[in-house]
UniProtKB/TrEMBL annotation:
EC number: 2.6.1.102
Xref: Pfam families: DegT_DnrJ_EryC1
Keywords: Aminotransferase, Pyridoxal phosphate, Transferase
Name the record gives this protein: GDP-perosamine synthase
Modified residues (N6-(pyridoxal phosphate)lysine): K185
């Protein structure tokens, strides 16, 4: 039986046709009509005025921080429970991340601890909020706090394309926001990202920096250090095709989550990640927590591996990562306990019902055999 992956790319014949059409057009560099169309399509679907397609979500965050003026000596708030790419660009600019723990309701940044950090620290230059595994953070409170303390809010919606919060699409709520189209995301351009904002001057500056900071003159003139961060027009063609399939992907992923939830409901030692508003998450990854700590978590992952099924622990909190040793963290125990107990399950939008049943059967047989050490 073929291996079941966590979240593999889901590439259709329509994607092949779309990429072939771009190649035939000969617009293969990071410039061309598909790029413009991809930016316009995503911006209008999210409801923001400006979008910039880039080579990765990490590049998008780097540019977002830069246009907000983050630099040496500044601090930037970031949730602890996230991928390292949510904080690495803070360090590219010589600033320091300040981590904030999760709340149990959504696994996202705890607004009460965010307020404590904002109250206590004068060096905070910006706040990064992350929508973990495709469920939005408590944005009402977080936006209110950022306004109260007059700090710009960067929305890391890397995992949340197609999700929303009280009707507001992910990517439309921060002062500046970004998506990732990495190979494991709900839609992919192999690698890629998009920066979104209603602030035209920020996105113009990001556009300029993303293309080697070239001055608008005939010859090559540069007054600042720039980056080679633009997305290729070929990949924008793939992105357009993938984006048109987003609704089906969300439904497929939601069906996986609901099937897992129904199957594990009667097991007291297992709980699915709490989803607050089922119609608003994009269900990028279905996650569960298993009581019993790290040894049980790892035993279940190993048991799935013997059936050729890929599963992984949830993100290791950034305040525990050696690279961020010494960084301040507000709270931390919730993220630590989620890490000790949390597992991401196969959630591909192309995973069949039969494959999903293989995953469910393997987990149930692990649970029925009781906890192994
Ligand atoms: C929460 C989060 N932020 C940022 C990123 C970075 O995106 P990329 O891989 O496109 O650079 C990712 C994913 O990879 C992510 O999951």
């Amino acid at each position: 039986m073929p291996r079941i992956y966590l979240s593999p790319p889901d590439i259709s014949m329509q994607d092949h046709a779309s990429v072939d059409a771009v190649l035939a057009s000969n617009w293969v560099a990071p410039v061309g009509p598909h790029l413009e169309e991809f930016e316009k399509t995503v911006a209008s679907s999210v409801g923001v005025k400006h979008a910039l397609a880039l080579s990765s979500g990490t590049a998008a965050l780097h540019l977002a921080l830069q246009v907000l003026g983050v630099g040496q000596g500044d601090e930037v708030i970031c949730p602890s429970m996230t991928f390292a790419a949510s904080a690495n660009p803070v360090r590219y600019l010589g600033a320091e991340p300040v981590f904030v723990d999760s709340e149990r309701r959504t696994w996202n940044m705890d607004p009460a601890l965010l307020e404590k950090a904002l109250q206590e620290r004068s060096a905070i230059k910006a706040v990064i909020v992350v929508h973990l595994y495709g469920q939005c953070a408590e944005m009402g409170k977080i936006i209110e706090l950022c306004r109260k303390y007059d700090k710009p809010l960067i929305e890391d919606a890397a995992e949340a394309v197609g999700a929303s919060y009280q009707g507001w699409p992910a990517g439309s709520m921060g002062d500046i926001a970004f998506f990732s189209f990495n190979g494991n995301k709900i839609i992919t351009t192999s690698g890629g990202g998009m920066l979104l904002s209603n602030h035209q001057e920020w996105l113009s500056r990001a556009r300029y920096l993303s293309a080697q900071a070239r001055e608008p003159v005939l010859h090559y003139e540069h007054r600042e250090v720039g980056y080679n961060y633009r997305m290729s027009n070929v990949l924008a063609g793939l992105g357009l095709s993938q984006f048109s399939d987003l609704k089906r992907r969300i439904s497929a992923k939601r069906a996986h989550f609901e099937a897992y939830k129904a199957a594990f409901d009667k097991y007291q030692n297992v709980a699915m990640m709490p989803i607050q508003e089922p119609d608003e998450a994009n269900y990028w990854l279905s996650c569960l927590t298993l009581s019993g700590g790290v040894s049980q978590r790892d035993a279940l992952i190993a048991a799935l591996e013997t059936e050729d099924i890929e599963a992984r622990p949830v993100w290791k909190p950034l305040h525990l990562q050696p690279v961020f040793d010494g960084c301040v963290c507000y709270g931390g125990q919730v993220a630590e306990s989620l890490f000790a107990q949390g597992i991401c399950l196969p959630s591909g939008s192309g995973m069949s019902g039969a494959e999903r049943q293989r995953v469910i059967d393997a987990i149930i047989s692990f649970l029925n055999e009781g906890f192994r050490s």
